[in-house]
């Protein structure tokens, strides 16, 4: 019966460079989410939404702190993150 539940596809392991790229992209996305939550908080007029955006700000800040700590422990320099973010913004323009 156990043989019926065999995975059809193998999990693909990411290379170290791919993991670093994914981490950097997650940091950039989280920074954008945090910025968006802060902007929305500034213009909210409902108490329910105030609570929601406070939660979003705290959650995104905690996630960003964790990701940056992880990046530092892996030796990824924050300047690299800023450089990549700058390049991505220029592509979007």
Could you report the average pLDDT, rounded to the nearest whole number? 83
Could you tell me the strand content as a percent range? under 5%
Envelope shape: extended
Q: What class would the helix/strand composition place it in?
A: mainly alpha
Q: What is the domain tally?
A: 1
Q: What's the helical proportion of residues?
A: over 70%
Number of DSSP E strands: 0
**Which residues form runs of ≥5 with pLDDT under 50?**
none
Number of helix segments? Answer: 3
Can you put this structure into words, describing what you see?
The longest helix is centred in the first third of the chain and has 27 residues, at 16-42. Helix 1 (16-42) packs antiparallel against helix 2 (47-73). This protein has one domain (15-92). The protein is 74% helix and 0% strand. It is built from 3 helices and no strands. The protein has 93 residues and is an all-alpha fold.
Brief rundown of the structure:
With 93 residues, this protein is an all-alpha fold.
